[in-house]
Input
Amino acid sequence: MKLKASIAGLVTFFLLTSCVSNKDLTYFGDKGSDDELIAQSIKLNEKPYRVQVSDLLSISIKSSDQKLVAMFQPVANDNATNASQSEQSLYYSGFTVSNHGNIEIPILGKMNVLAFTLKEIEESIKKKLLEDYFKIEADLFVVVKLAGLRFTVTGEVGRTGIVVLYQDRVNIIEALASSGDITTVGNRRDVLVIRQYPQGQKIHHIDLTSVDAFNSPYYYIKPNDMIYVKPLSQKSLGTGTTLIQSITTIVTVLSLVTSVIVLSRNL
Output
């Protein structure tokens, strides 16, 4: 009788702890959520990005007479083409924001861009050029962009590693999708976003199974973020992620227990 009770208890334990719940696999699974309020929350979070230390900027200065602005452009890598630049060429021809928040543009010299939006930097460069070097007739056109949004994804994802996306804005779902998405044993309820600040790194948490994730200031990725997906307890237990896998594990364990009991009785 004790043996049957022990086996029943063992089976119950495995069934309760081994399978990954559907709620743990569903993104933004809250019921009764107001879609209009969610859309408003996302729009409120879409604030212009402000440049930080170590960002790599791509700056293009154009004019009706391109020869006039050539001296303000960095010397591009030999492997670069006019149509597109590789990540390597952008590293050499782009402008890295220093620890003091400065970039250095040929002829123009140092400019502080820390905490400025890309639009503000464009206007500042254009203003300086018109004040010191050109007249309004030069028809200047300045474009400033992030030279790729670079971040790291590690933990329970399809592919770990450093990712560079050539977009102005990337949310955490897009970031995870670029790395093969979270695996079935990844913890979607507590994804860590490790963000760089002037005073150092800080760890933030976001629950991707809740629509409240849209309100999170960490829903949108920033350059140099590191995203870490922790494993669920099912992985450490090694009991499987689906019902079939769990039943297979239970049968194996029960067979082992039965064999041990039979052998011990025969001794």
Notes: The longest strand covers residues 186-197.
